[in-house]
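Hi W., the zinc ion complex you wanted:
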Amino acid sequence: MNAVVNATPIGSAQSGFIHLMKSLNNECAKSFQELIEDKHLYQTVKVDYAGIHKAIRSRVIAGAQAGFDATVRTTNFRVSLVESTDQTRLVMIPINVELYCEGKECCKKQAHRPIWFKEIIQDAQATTSTVLITPKLIVPELFQLIVIAYRCERCHGTPQVLVIRRSGWTFSLDCRSPIEHIEVPKHFPKKESHLYRDAVIASHAGKGLAALFYLRAFIEQWGRRITGMSGRNTGDEIMMTYAKTLPTHLRETMPSLKECYEKLSEPIHDARDDAEVFKEVIDKIDQHFEIRSAHRIPEVEMKEQDTVTENQPKNEAVQQIPNGVKKTSDAVTETEASQEHKNNDSSS
Ligand SMILES: [Zn+2]
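Structure:
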């Protein structure tokens, strides 16, 4: 049905132009909503101007195409945020969107209403203050900065502000205050969750190397807390010792955090952004903690007098290893083996 309607010939240049602006307005509104609700910092949406223009122009009757082209050539395609009934302008009035609300009563996605918005480039260019705007502000024709403040419809808390940058027909989410909220899975450890959040935020913002580093720091800090290992222990040593804290019958079924640590270290050592490694490892970490949670493995932090227990009671079969961490016989055997290996490496 739509295809038939869309194929209807357009009989005049003016009518063709109004069709074009209507389609662009719809597409801009859709893209804005997608950008605000689904995209992350520095991500973009693109309005397919060329495709829309081509589709509309092909419907304009031959005799009116020259007039249509002339109108398009002289049109200012800036998006205006001022309400207007003029069908020949691009007008984008922000509408309600779903955003996460950090208000105490909410703590989830809620409808947010735009309470203030402005396109600031046009305002800056219109200012009469010579102090503010000398020399004259010159930007590309389709460069715009749009600021929108939203307020939660449920709790009416403090507003959130977004800045959208337009370059040509590409719109990007360049600023978000407060920073994007990242939901941390319930089965993840709470103490280290800020590192997990930063890893995801960095990944969303396209800072892949930082994302890998934060994710590695997340499992390393978790491992350090559980094993009680601090100072100069290497990540490998910590993760190896951590594995010993897991019940033997589950250990083989859980993705290994030591392997995750090693996998993350490769691109970090090369200062390489690797989105595939990030995705693969974050899924494995999620599975690891999910299994911990499903089997109710307690979050026991080892202290000076603690032991790594599998089936042994505390303080049984404890030996002191050089770094001051107490382990079971098993753990010591492996850690000592690794220490010996290191010594051999450094002496060779
Ligand atoms: Zn709220």
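The pocket of zinc ion is lined by residues 101, 103, 106, 110, 152, 154-155, 157 (CB under 6 Å).

W.
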